């Protein structure tokens, strides 16, 4: 009996040790998982974006030249009484600019968003007064505007012809005219579907003696004006919508 109890005790002890040592089940292995190493790409250094700059003003042979990049207001420059030819160009998709004096008076958007063009500016003390002006521009790229007195340009002799597309503004060269009758004739490649205009100004005083609409429904025509005095004049024409393309001729006998 003593042998049986001892044998049973020994068997229980062996089973306990086997359980503690894990000998009673299949062998288990622990494997560590390491994430693969991935080379990071270098982040490129961002290039600086050009910012808006204050437009530069320069004087050259009596012309005021303003150049800038994107939006900005220029320093002041002086415009005395007279008629000025304003031309502009931009490398962007739009350009709008206006002239403002110290009191906030001046000319509204001269370019009307067009990236290039030409227009007359009349400084006569009526709507635009002589004085110091600032050009305020809005664009998406670089641009340049030039303001030149019309009386600083050697005048041409009549007849003269202006031509441009519908909705565009055409500017003549300054021209000499004598007191008396003047004929203004026009022709369009298509019948006008709206009104256009012809203006003739004295380059010294800025006064206009002729303002005539180019009537809707017309494709060609002629009118007469009376020049009040011998002098130098300049003309501005707007070709009416629908006309496609037009020519305006000014002549005297």
Number of domains: 2
- Backbone CA Rg: 42 Å
What class, by secondary structure content?
Answer: mainly beta
- The name of the CATH architecture of the largest domain is Sandwich
Quick one: overall form?
A: globular
Strand numbers in spatial order across the main sheet: 1-2-10-5-8
- Share of β-strand residues: over 45%
Question: Could you state the order of secondary-structure elements as H and E?
Answer: HEEEEEEEEEEEEEEEEEEE
**What's the overall average pLDDT, rounded?**
83
- CATH topology of the largest domain, by name, is Jelly Rolls
Query: Between the first and last Cα atoms, what is the distance in angstroms?
Result: 157 Å
Residue share in helix:
under 10%
Report the oligomer: single chain
CATH class of the largest domain: Mainly Beta
Q: What characterizes the major β-sheet? A: 5 strands, antiparallel
Written account of the structure:
- This protein is mainly beta and 253 residues long.
- Helices cover 8% and strands 47% of the residues.
- The chain has a five-stranded antiparallel beta sheet, with no helix packed on it.
- Strand 1 and strand 2 (63-69) form a beta hairpin.
- The model is unreliable at 14-18 (pLDDT under 50).
């Amino acid at each position: 009996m003593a042998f049986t109890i001892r044998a049973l005790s020994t068997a229980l002890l062996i089973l306990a040790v086997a359980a503690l040592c894990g000998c009673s089940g299949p062998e288990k292995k622990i494997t560590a998982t390491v994430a693969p190493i991935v080379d990071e790409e270098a982040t490129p250094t961002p290039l600086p974006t050009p910012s808006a700059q204050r437009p530069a003003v320069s004087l050259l042979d009596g012309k005021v030249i303003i150049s800038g990049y994107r939006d900005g207001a220029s320093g002041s420059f002086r415009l005395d009484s007279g008629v000025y030819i304003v031309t502009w160009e931009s490398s962007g998709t739009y350009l709008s600019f206006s002239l403002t004096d110290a009191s906030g008076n001046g000319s509204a958007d001269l370019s009307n968003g067009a990236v290039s063009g030409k227009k007359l500016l009349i400084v006569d003390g009526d709507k635009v007064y002589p004085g110091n002006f600032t050009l305020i521009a809005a664009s998406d790229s670089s641009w340049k505007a030039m303001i030149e007195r019309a009386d600083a340009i050697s005048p041409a002799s009549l007849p003269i012809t202006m031509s441009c597309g519908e909705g565009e503004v055409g500017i003549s060269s300054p021209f000499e005219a004598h007191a008396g009758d003047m004929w203004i004739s026009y022709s369009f490649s298509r019948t006008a579907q709206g009104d256009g205009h012809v203006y003739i100004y004295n380059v010294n005083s800025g006064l206009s003696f002729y303002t005539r609409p180019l009537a809707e429904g017309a494709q060609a025509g002629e009118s007469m004006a009376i020049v009040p005095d011998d002098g130098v004049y300049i003309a501005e024409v707007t070709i009416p919508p629908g006309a496609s393309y037009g020519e305006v001729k000014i002549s005297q006998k």
